[in-house]
Amino acid sequence: MTRRSLLALAAAMVLSAAPQAGQPVAAPRPPVIPAHTALKYLPLRPVEIPQVGRFTLPNGMKLYLLENHELPLIRGFALVRTGNLFDPPDKVGLAEVTGMVMRTGGTANKTGDELDEQLENMAASVETGIGETAGSVSFSALRENADEVLAVFYDVLTSPEFRQEKTDLAKTQLRSAIARRNDSPGGIAAREVSEILYGKDTPYGWRLEYAHLDRIQRDDLIGFYRRYFFPANITLAVYGDFDTQEMKGKLERLFASWNDQQPPVAPFPAVSAKPAPGIYVARKDDVNQTFFQIGHLGGLLNDKDYPALEVMGDILGGGFNSRLFKEVRTKLGYAYSVGAGWGAEYDHPGLFLVSGSTKSESTIDTLKIVRQEIERLRQAEVSAQELESAKQKVLNSFVFNFDTPSKTLNRLVRYEYYGYPPDFIFQYQKAVAAVTPADVLRVARERLRPAELTFVAVGKPEDFSRPLAALGLPVKDIDLTIPEPKAEAAVEDAGSLQKGREALQRIQTALGGAERLASVRDLEQRAVVTIAASEGPMAGMKVQQTARWIAPSQLRQEQELPFGKMIIYFNGGDGWLSAQQKTGPLPPPVKEQLQGDLFRLLIPLLLSDRDSGRRVNLAEPGVLEISSQDGRHMVRVRFDDATAMLLGRTYKSAALQGAPRDVVETLEDWRDVDGIKLPHKITIEQDGAKFAEVAIESIRLNSGIKPEELSRQP
Predict the structure, then answer these.
(1) CA 256/CA 558 separation, integer angstroms
(2) Which of 159, 310, 596, 605 has the most CB within a 10 Å radius?
(3) Is 515 exposed, middle or buried (0-12, 13-18, 19+ CB in 10 A)?
(4) Alpha-carbon distance 355 to 190, whole Å?
(5) pLDDT confidence of 176, banded at 50, 70, 90?
(6) Strand 278-283, strand 475-478: pairing
(7) How many whole angstroms separate alpha carbon 171 and alpha carbon 213?
(8) Other C-beta atoms lying within 10 Å of the C-beta of residue 518
(9) So what's the pLDDT on residue 18?
(10) Displacement of CA 172 from its chain's centroid (Å)
(11) What is the C-alpha to C-alpha distance for residues 637 and 347, in angstroms, rounded to an integer?
(12) What are the boundaries of each domain within the chain?
């Protein structure tokens, strides 16, 4: 089982079997599953390798053709030697975005949406994607439409357009994935253990962040595509209802004009990680379970010991009859699901992992038992019954990779792609069948390394029966903070900073003077916010909003919404939220958003030259960059260079859900309020689309607002 399939299986076991986060976990006592002592295993039908036509096209592309006339379908895929392991360190995600936009961005002849309509009308598909160590472009068609679909497949493979709007959409989708990556505790555990074991500073352990996506541009996608998508770097496999010679001629003609060349692709980087023993804890306070992953580096599929290691993994945690399942779940009732497996990859070590979830209070005991069961495998031979059951399960599972001709073709192509012999399946089957109890004991002693185990636990430490240090290992915290993207700041030096202060002082004078602005101690603003969305539940919604502020950092916002009033209070560090007759602490995303709101509040923003915690830089004529010294906040202030009047603000805003948004505010309808000019109309755009209009009905300055008025809960 590969590393990713193992992680997916572990996650599926946890998510499907475990109660949802936040629900109590009972100590399950499932019915005892009887030992299958009388079960007899019939011999497996031998795997049949079909006759596959192998050719090389004149442009260097390898071609596999497999006829099958059972159904009037033709399918195929191009396997490309590339992968996200070739991402530049500062642009992690480039391969993934390239794989997404190859299809959605359309071709030189048609947009992606036009291709969607064309293919849907034929019940056909053309898809693209790039994973860790391979890229692919695939197609599926009815025989009667095969020529038209092949033409689309050819265009997508050879002339993708990477249109800008689809590039932006792909990046937005990935931003949303980043924003949601801490939603699933089981997903956190699987992600963290993989990154720790492979090394966070290696291509195998790199993590996609907002900043990476911000650096990826359309030209980067085009460059990545051109480097790796050329005929000699591609294997094309086609399967289905056709005549081999006829299809060969058709593909030769189709690809006759595609003769792009590039230097040979370098080998994928080697895994260089070192053991990282210890316990790594990710705090998640909204769960009453602990989700765990335990393991170390595994091995390769062509390792001579892999068959015995896979059998060993199945005995340890491969199913209902495994040792971990019987001990942790059935006997002790500590966990509803637990599993283990020896992970292997084609060309680099996979991961040996034990995964599962348990009640918070039984966390320490569960992890101790896992470690004990790993040690027990290294102390004595497994029983004949355990061995036979595991071997049959491994063999029965593996043959499903070859139960149809199309799966067999897929596997044969991948064997060649990764440099495996064509008869690898038969070597593997023979080796599994020959595994003995002595083999399992030997590989357990040689390859299981209890002293190097990495433990990752996601849960609420206060609910554990004892501190994790009771396991006798160093304990380290995992930071789940998602780094906010930092806007690329303009180059600054002493001259630009001086010009920035001078420009800000001109703006202060134009709006009433610095001293009058500095005299404002409190402010109350009433406004109507009209949501500009053209569709959906918020379309056209009008929200009555009252905001009150006391210098320097107390803020109260009240909004009249269709479902009732919402009130938010924030004092710069903490606060509360009241909605639907319930009041509670501010969620972290709301707190983060409010910190940005305070930083951008107009009057203190205009006095940034008097704040030692801020920098004011003239980015270009008519644009000031005002940023916090710690780099957390930055806003661009646009102004008329001739009159020094403000035009608007541009910034990134933390979102309550999803990725941070690019916000552009246009400030208009300036009126005098107690000698200070303030805007009474604000138009807001988010991510390039109009979001809302704010019509300010009244502004009061220095009305004597008391702190207790803001902090008083309803």
Answers:
(1) 67
(2) 310
(3) exposed
(4) 8
(5) confident
(6) parallel
(7) 6
(8) 15
(9) 35
(10) 12
(11) 52
(12) 3-19+274-478, 58-254, 494-711
Question: Comparing 3-19+274-478 with 58-254, is the CATH topology the same?
Answer: yes
pLDDT digits (tens, 9 = 90+) for 445-491: 999 999 999 999 999 999 999 999 999 999 999 999 888 766 566 77
Of 177, 187, 160, give the one whose Cα is nearest residue 100.
Answer: 160
Tokens of 194: 């993989």
Pure H helices in 255-321: 306-317
Output the six-digit token pair for 349.
């070590």
| pLDDT value of residue 19 | 33
Which CATH code fits 58-254? 3.30.830.10
Determine the topology of domain 494-711 in CATH: outer membrane lipoprotein receptor (LolB), chain A (2.50.20)
The CA distance from 149 to 154, in Å, is: 9
The answer to whether 208 touches 381, Cβ cutoff 8 Å, is no
CA-atom Rg of the chain in angstroms: 31
- Domain 3-19+274-478 sits in CATH at 3.30.830.10
DSSP E strands in 485-622: the ranges are 522-531, 542-550, 554-561, 564-570, 575-579, 582-585, 614-620
| Confidence band for 341, pLDDT divided at 50, 70 and 90 | very high
Distance, C-alpha 288 to centroid of its chain: 24
Element (H, E) at 16: helix 3-17
Cα distance from N-terminal residue to C-terminal residue, the chain: 57
